[in-house]
Amino acid sequence: MRPLADQMPTATRVLGPFHVCKLALDALDEVRRVQHDTLGRRGHRDDPLYRARRLLRRRADRLTGRAWARLTARLTNGDPNGEVSAAWAVAQDVMAAYATDDFTTGRDRAEQAIAAALSCPVPEVARLGRTLRAWRTELLAYFNTERASTSNGPTEAVNLLIETSRRAGHGFRSFDNYQLRLLLAHGMSTCDHGAPRIRGSRPRFAA
Question: pTM of the predicted model, to two decimals?
Answer without folding.
Answer: 0.70
